[in-house]
Design goal:
Largest sheet: 4 strands, mixed
Radius of gyration: 15 Å
Oligomer: single chain
Number of strands: 6
Distance between the termini: 33 Å
Strand content: 35-45%
Number of helices: 0
Helix content: under 10%
Structural class: mainly beta
């Protein structure tokens, strides 16, 4: 795996769902999906990766790698988590 053309340091990846429940209103099952990456060189800090308008899907948990900072949070030693905010992506035309 690479981020912005740079190899990602050794890490483990966890994926799962939490707070699984059945709604008493509509009878449907709901849960919060997540991905967490834990670096081998953990700096003791945690980075929550907000999805900025793409909630509804779990994006790769690496932390931003844009102009600032130039390095991803994962490569800086942060444990990084991303989630779907508890809902699946909407189908076009429906919400």
């Amino acid at each position: 795996m690479t981020i912005a053309g740079k190899p990602v340091a050794a890490h483990c990846q966890l994926t799962g769902k939490m707070l699984a429940r059945v709604s008493p209103v509509d009878g449907k099952a709901y849960a919060i999906g997540f991905e967490m990456r834990l670096p081998g060189n953990w700096n003791g800090r945690f980075f929550y990766q907000a999805n900025g308008g793409v909630d509804g899907s779990v994006v790769t948990a690496t932390g931003p790698a844009g102009p600032a900072p130039l390095e991803s949070a994962l490569n800086q030693g942060f444990a990084v988590i991303s989630s779907d905010a508890g809902h699946s992506a909407c189908i076009a035309g429906y919400s």
